Structures are given as structure tokens and as C-alpha cells.
Amino acid sequence: xxxxxxxxxxxxxxxxxxxxxxxxxxxxxxxxxxxxxxxxxxxxxxxxxxxxxxxxxxxxxxxxxxxxxxxxxxxxxxxxxxxxxxxxxxxxxxxxxxxxxxxxxxxxxxxxxxxxxxxxxxxxxxxxxxxxxxxxxxxxxxxxxxxxxxxxxxxxxxxxxxxxxxxxxxxxxxxxxxxxxxxxxxxxxxxxxxxxxxxxxxxxxxxxxxxxxxxxxxxxxxxxxxxxxxxxxxxxxxxxxxxxxxxxxxxxxxxxxxxxxxxxxxxxxxxxxxxxxxxxxxxxxxxxxxxxxxxxxxxxxxxxxxxxxxxxxxxxxxxxxxxxxxxxxxxxxxxxxxxxxxxxxxxxxxxxxxxxxxxxxxxxxx
Length: 366
What we know:
Elements: E1 8-9, H1 19-22, H2 46-49, H3 53-63, E2 65-69, H4 78-89, E3 92-96, H5 102-112, E4 121-125, H6 126-131, E5 136-137, E6 159-170, E7 191-192, H7 201-209, H8 219-231, E8 243-247, H9 248-257, E9 265-267, E10 275-283, H10 289-300, H11 302-310, E11 314-315, H12 318-323, H13 329-333, E12 343-344, H14 347-364
Parallel strand pairs: 2-3, 7-8
Antiparallel strand pairs: 1-12, 4-10, 5-10, 6-8, 6-9, 6-10, 6-11
Helix pairs in contact: 3-10, 7-8, 8-14, 10-11
């Protein structure tokens, strides 16, 4: 699989998915009358290394442990996902450095390499997954054919599990519904980002969502908007915000929680739709290789995908599940509405934009 060198647009009806890939049926395990392969916990698929899900589960249970990194409990439902996986398979899950960025996940793995504490699996932004592909073991989950081609490495070194759209969360008691990112520059509005865009991926993507003009990203446009907000005294901390630019799954979770924001609403401005996936990867040095592969099978299963959906993230297999009537329709109906063609930044576009933000943010925004 090659990453497209241009902006990728995907129809909003597909909700971040490629219809062609989603219509394919997932590969199925070996039939019962076929000889089972020799057990290989580091195999590149369920079929080649285990033959059946039962054998993978048995091998993972023997290992008895899984180490994850960079998975805060409040992010896309990971607290419930980890608990469900652990309870279902009787495997102890240890979560290390939960607030780690994608780059910090890789750094943590390097620091712990060769120890039993090293992470088995990763959850990464696209550019970090692409840059570190040599560190990952190829593994194609059972639902491989349902994952869009643009967000999976051909051999299975990394692949999408969930994604989302950049959005504006706002308090309608204090701010009228923003029709655009530019509308945030309204006197009296206090806008927040989920961190420093030079260090936090979701904050960088917030700037890039504000940078879209006629579907084309321009980092300067995004930085200029936040410079205007800063100059006008309208850029503040999340706890001060009357408007928050963040992924829709994070803003929707805030709205659902009601914590200090009982009237919180979420909107995705028309024709300013930035989309992104987060990638899964199995460590080539995983101390618990069978448990790592079982974890990925669980995340990409109907059960795991619906747990992401419950937390307002958009599953990578959402269209195929909808066609097979395995999607949680109630959870899907709670997703924020989207209008317009989503834009997915290519790796080269991200690299150029990050260079601009790094060079100009401190001078223009502080």
C-alpha cells in the first residue's frame, strides 16, 4: 500500500471508509477439515499461525499478559475496551505511560526493548506508523479486507482501527453555533485547543482543520486564525473554554458526560471537514506475541469496533458492519453529523505543515 501524495477525499456517506474495500468479505479461518498449521505466535495471520481463533486464545492465555502504551482511559473508550478484553480472555493488561504521544510510544519501546515490560502493541498517528514500520510485525487481522486500502500497510505492519473528524464543541448558552472555524473569532468567545500543536497531534490537527479553504490545507491560514484569537484575548485553557476544537469523539464524549458542560454541543463545519485514522501495530519484539495478535483481533472484531463506536469514534470497518447488520445502530445515530467531503492529509502534507507550525507558532501565537 502506498500513501497518496495528495489530499484524499472520501464521500461523507462512507464515513471515512472506502466502499470498495468495505464490500469485501473478511478472510475466514481454516475450515475444520483442513490440517491445522504448526502453532506460531509470531505469524502474520490467524490462519497461518493458529488456524482457529480458539488456538490463538489458548496461546494468548498461556502468555497471560499484554502490555499497552499510550492508551488513556478517556480516549475512544479504551478504559472499557481494556476491561472487556481482560475479562473476556483472562489476560492481565498492563497500561504504561498512558498519556504518551505516538512518538513517545516509540521512544518507550526503545527504552524498554529486551525487557518483559516492553509494549506489545501500539496505537499511532499515520505519520509515526509509516516512519517506524520496520519496528512492527506483519499481522493481518481476520477483518483485513474491510479496512480501507489507504489506511493499511500491505503486509499488515500497521492498519487503522478507528478514526474521527475534527470538530468544534461549544456551550450554546454562551456561543452561537459556529458555522465555520473563522466564526470562532467572535468577541466574548474563549477558544481552547487540546494542547500545543507543536507537540500534541490532536492540537496540530485542530490547526489544520482551521486551515482548510475550498478543501485545500494551508498551515498559514490555520496559524493566522489562532494568532487572531490570541491577540483578541480569545485563546484560553480547556477549563476556561466556551468553544473547544478537538476530535468529534472527544467533544461528543464531553457533551455526553455532562461534567460542567450539560449544554455542550458539537458541530463539524460544512466543507471544513478534516478526517484522520489512528493506526494499530504489533511490536516485532512483543514479549507476548500471541496476546498482541489477539488484542488486534479483538479491536477489529465487531465487538471491539462497536466499543469504539460507543465512545463516538468511527470504526474502520463501519460500512462493512452496517451492510452485515452487525453495527450498533443506536451508537451510530449519536455521532455528530457531517456534511462535505472529508480531507485526509497525506504524510508529505503533514510534514510540510508541521515544519510551518514549528517555525511560526511561538512567534505568532506564543
